[in-house]
Amino acid sequence: MKKHLLLSTLLVAVALPVWADTNPRTGEELADNQAYTYRMLDSVKSLDPQLISSVEDSDVARGLFEGLFNEDGDGNLVPAGAVSFTVSDDKLTYTFKLRPESKWSDGTPVTAADYVYGWQRLVDPALASEYAYYLELAQVKNAAAITAGTTPASELGVKAVDDLTLEVTLDNPIPYFTKMLTNTSTFPAPKAAIEKFGADWTKPENIVTNGAYLLKDFVDGEKYVEEKNPAYWDAANVIMSPVTALVINDEDAALTRYQAGELDRTEVPAGQYPRLKEEFPAEAHSTPYACAYDYIINLADGKGNEALKDVRVRMALSYAVDRDVIVNNILQGGQTPAYSWTPPAINGYVMPDIDYSHWTQAERNDKAKALLAEAGFGPDHPLQLTLNYNTSDAHKKIAVAIQQMWKQTLGVELTPNNYEWKVHTDKLIAGDFDMARYAWCADYNEASTFLDLYASYSTNNDGKFANADYDKLLKDAKTMADPSANYTAAEQILAADMPVIPIYHYAKVDMVKPDLKGLPQHDVMQFWYAKDLYRVKQ
Amino acid sequence: MLVFILKRLAVAVPTLLALIVISFLMMHAAPGGPFTQEKQLQAAVLANLNAKYGLDQPIWVQMARYVWGIVAHFDFGPSFVYKDRTVNEIIAQGFPVTLSYGAIAFVLAVGVGLVLGVFAAVFQNSWLDHLAVGVSIGAQVLPNFVMAPILVLIFTLWLGWLPGGGWEGGDWKHQVMPVIAMATAYMASIARIVRSSMLEVLTLNHIRTARAKGLPTHKVILRHALKPALIPVLSYLGPTFVSMITGSVVIDMFFSTAGIGKFFVDAALNRDYALMMGVTLLVGVLTIVFNLLVDVLYAWIDPKIRL
Known about the structure:
A: seven-stranded mixed β-sheet, B: mainly alpha, 12 helices
């Protein structure tokens, strides 16, 4: 019996993963349990890096796959698939040296040809990826023409010089090109597996990956389990395993399961942060998130409300929104009032000095009243407007609050119209609105992902704001070494012309188990990498 | 009987076709499409997507292709949203889940509902009746979206007996709460239908005769009253069974059971045309089959009903 006990103890000791007791990077003492389970809002829509379009699919895919760069907890680039890169003097050619020890899960090395293949299929009309525009955004040569079907994919500005040298040619020397390379759409693709299995290549039995984790268990709609990949080039520093994503649609149900110990991380439902922060100060966290919430104003000719074409009216409306009330009394999750479009926490972004952000609300209200009166609206001639928003408790509360603020301060009669999501979006695209709720999240950690939206040539400029100076600032910014002055000037134009009413900047509000470390604290993209996570001994 | 069944099946084909046509047209008439989004797609990207999924074709071509795909290959098309999965795969994975907890819930609802209803009728106006009626009204007014969090609060957070969600291949611990949440309201309805129909049957002549013969109450009930009292319940059970085994959006969302219940709402909101058609057709086919089954059962229970 004793012998058996000894034997089984030995066996268990051998079977258990042998962790160094401390984190090799930080020296912190590690807990015995290094499993991580988190909540996912919905099933994976696709694990194909070139087809992924949702934040949550990217979270899973960043464990399974790896591109040229990762981001650290502050949003800085960290070499991953690439070890180094050089840029030509005209800033149009980037040459990446790839990591020689990087391997696919089928044992073959990751080569420059895999990147070329991945990028070509991304823009290929046959794949019809929703992210096909991304390489055009990144100014990669011929990307737009290939997506439009006028040029073959082989003409894309990306080339494998040799197995470990990737060369990218751009149409314009954009300064933030490398920052865009953490998006999963720019990851390499395993050609052999994709050609063999076609659309089924992401099925768990077929998938070939190159990241820090392997897909271990895949029950669609329920859970996705990743386990440490021993062949990963940096496996010595990968501590957390297994990593499990549980699909839980309902955020209240997820919170309950977090409290029952079934999850290590989950989102805080709207309005519950103050209570949870008080009850669990070490677990409730709010960190800035690269998304902005605003009311977009329809400035298109012959559409929307004519009164809104008067800049004084738009300014009056914006000034009369008490943003502090919205973030402190409605959202209550550490969101910040927005007086500019771009979130201040965006990497390298210099926050412009927007005049009305310093004023007290009383000052803003006085100014708003004066402006609206000047524009010819008053008690006997009240301004009547409509506002479209999509079905959601929070949107409704904000709309009702703003309706009250405008009524009280300006005598504006606002009719909020609630539409189901697709109807709302359809009306937005068709220009069928006076004002509409809108939100935008960054594609990459740089201010142009926000500011480009209101260029007159932008597909997403639903309000049809057009300002030649604004367009010029942004176009020039594409070729400047340091475009931050242009971004600041562009924000000033938005504040002066007020084509949108910025309302608040997002925060990611989470419950996180206190022993869990390695989640990003200052990366507004909220990119997290399972390989950077670990649990400390408590 | 066989002729009747064949006739009914023959009618089912045009019924299903009508279901396809009407759903297809309604679905496409709704504003927005599967690729309508806040972050708008560029014209070229959208055109590529529409071409890939055949949305660039006239609606009647799309419809004909859809029907042909089903008839020729039993292929219900790709999901427009869950891009790694086809509608066949989504239904093949999610339907067994809802079928499992739905069928168990059905047995539970019918079993308990019948017993409650019979007892309430037999002991009309006694404390037992009041209790049974009270329980069933309580269960009926408690919708499952209230029931589900209460169950989780009690069994997961307070007692720690059951996991708060997930499916784990249908492990019984994961089925308990979905089954209870699913069964209660149906159980209550069944109990009330049984009670009222039983009360009616108990006043009939043949029951009086049976009682006059001196048969004990339980025999009167089981042998003579139960069968006729079941007829109104039966017509309720066909559609009920179908709606139970196709799950519920509340249960699938709240208990994360990965069943197809949630797609009835999700697919519509996402304008995931093929998935929406898939689940609609699934319910359509099941409804036709089980209504037919109920009709056959009628004839068996009551020979007076000629088919």
